Structures are given as C-alpha cells and as structure tokens.
Fold this protein.
Amino acid sequence: MAHDGQAIAPNVYDAEPIPASAMAEIERLLISGDLFRYTAPEGAPVAMLEREFAELMGSRFALAVSSCSAALFLSLKALDLPRGAKVLIPAFTFAAVPSAVLHADCVPVLVEVGKNYRVDMDDFAAKLPGADAVLISHMRGHTSDMDAILDLCDAAGIPVIEDAAHSLGTEWHGRKIGTIGKIGCFSFQSYKLVNAGEGGMLITDDAELAARCIIMSGAYEHNWKKHPGLQNSFMQWQNRLPLYNMRMQNLSAAVIRPQLPEVAGRVAKGRAGHDRVASRLNECGWLAVPPALPPEERAPDSIQFNLAGTWTDDEARRFQTRAKERGVTVQVFGLSADNARAFWNWQFLGEQPDLPQTRAMLMRACDVRLPTRLTEAELDFIASALVDAAMDVKG
C-alpha cells in the first residue's frame, strides 16, 4: 500500500468483515424481536448453526454457547469431576483457561511448554499421575503432540478436552482439531477465524456429555427437546443439573452462519500468509519461527517467532520499539505488562511453582497478528519491518 509515495503499515486490528448475506437475516431478526434461541419450535438460527457446525466438523453433537470460556467450563462440569479434581493445562495459554478450571471447582496443574510453544511431553508425563482430566490449549493454533498425549491419557483412563479457540480448520494426521479429545471447544471472538464479537461452540460424539452440557447451558424445562437425537439422555438429567445460562442468542448465530463456508478459504489464505512471513523471518539470524510438528496442518491468523541467539530484556524491548516505529506492533509475551498469557500474572491461582522453561520462552516469544485478508504486499511490509527492527538492534 502507498500514500504520497510512502508505504504505510497495514491495519491488522480490524476483524474479518461480516458477510453481506448476514445483513438481511439480522434485519429480519431485529424486526421480529425473535432473538432467544428457544422461542421458535424449530429452525432457530442457533439450532441451524449447531447443525451446520457439526456437519463441518464431522461431529455428532454441537452446542452453541456465549464464549469459548463457557464451553470449557461446561465441558469440565459435564465430566462430573470431583471437587478439587486436578486438571492438567499448558502453562502457555490465555488466563480464561485456568479461570474456567477454577470456576468448575477444579485445580489447574500447569505443564511446561517448550520454545516451540507446545507441551513438554516429559513434564506432561511426570504430572499426569493423579490428574483427573487434561485440558489441552492449542495456544495460538500450535498443536502439541496429540498422539503422545492421547496414548498416555487413554492408558490412564483420563479424559481430554481440546481448547481449539485458535484452531478452527487445523488438522492433525488429517483429523480436525477439536475432534480428537472427548470434547472440543471453539471461539468466535473477533480476533478468531470466524468473527461474531463473542461466542463459542463445543462439539462431542458422546451423547451423555452433550446432554449434560445442553441442560447446564440453560435448556430449562423441556427446551432440550429442541436439540435432536438425545431424548433418552435428557430424560435422565431433567431437573437434576444446575443451570448456568450460557446460551448463544440468534443474532450471533446469524453473524456466524454465513462465515462457515468461508472457513476453508480463510485457512488457505492464512497458512499462505503465515508461511510467506515465516520464510522471511527465518532468513534473519536473529528471528526464528519454530516449525510445526509433522502431522499438523495449521490454520494461522497470526505469527509467533522467537528472538534467536542472545538477547537482553532491554534489547527485546528496543526491538518492539523499532518495529512499532515502522508501523508493526509486536508483543513479546513476557515483557508486556499484565499480559494475560504470562502464567505469573494468574495471581488468582495463588502460589505456583516456577516453570523455568515456559518463563524463558515467554520472555523471548513474539506475537504479531496476520489477518487472512492481508495482501502479499502487506505481508511483505510486516516481514521487512520485523527483520529491519531486529537488525537495527542486533545488526
């Protein structure tokens, strides 16, 4: 992009635009006032979204909720874990994940994460005995070794929940992320691949878990009858589970539904854009993008890279400043104040053991948004700004 002969930095903060095809449906809903998912006897936008999302993912059941955090919480409650149950989570995730574990009356156990942003399998195996569940965050869309995780958890009879907030469209050995564990949870918050401002979805093939999640999400009285295929399971839980009222409303579904056919194209564009920038960064000796694990086909809408070699905290901050002067905002996870992805800021957990491997990674791991709508010229602008900023500081 050019302005008076000067290249200008691309805007990476605007979310994906809402498709025009959603506008008529939104206007129809506003005129009717029919915003509650259970008003209509059938065919409500939320119900249609659930059916379409289940088909997209190849899952038996899908439940639309108010956020991915709500999906994670309901998943943990549906597993009927004992109060104080230990739930393993990666130490590199968003604060909402340990929060969901706490809200579900469980205790998060933080597992080390390596320089490649994936769960350290030695630490995972060491902490698995005594755990009641595992909640794997595919943080920023980076898939940990799901083969090894599932092997260990299946052998121990420990259920796995997938936090796939950043991973809609990612595949592992050709299997869709979110379908590998017992339950998969997704986000439609504005900075995700599908933008509804807020919103979440959980999927499962387990009828019992689906029924429990649906009732607790707020299917009071006999509204569960508007969810197909679960009548026997629902009858068992009528009036026996607390309601948390975490439903999605019809306007959100109207915004999401026309974006589902766009997912495959956004994934392809996102991967191409990510790889284009990554190849440029990896040519600079001071920046390094860790490769994906071989079974993984990612669906990125951002890029993470490490400051390679020896950097001081001051140099890392200067790199952020130099990139900003060139129009590109870089977040070094561990150096931005009160970052919700730095485990030491989760003070609500109380005293935690230090995690030196994760801490070291976070102090040099960088994060830059790469929306799928960026042009090649805009991607090249971002890559050049990052490389030039690194050479400014270290060159």
In short: Residues 21-261 form a domain with the Aspartate Aminotransferase; domain 2 fold (CATH 3.40.640.10). Confidence is low (pLDDT under 50) at residues 1-5. The two ends are 27 Å apart (CA to CA).
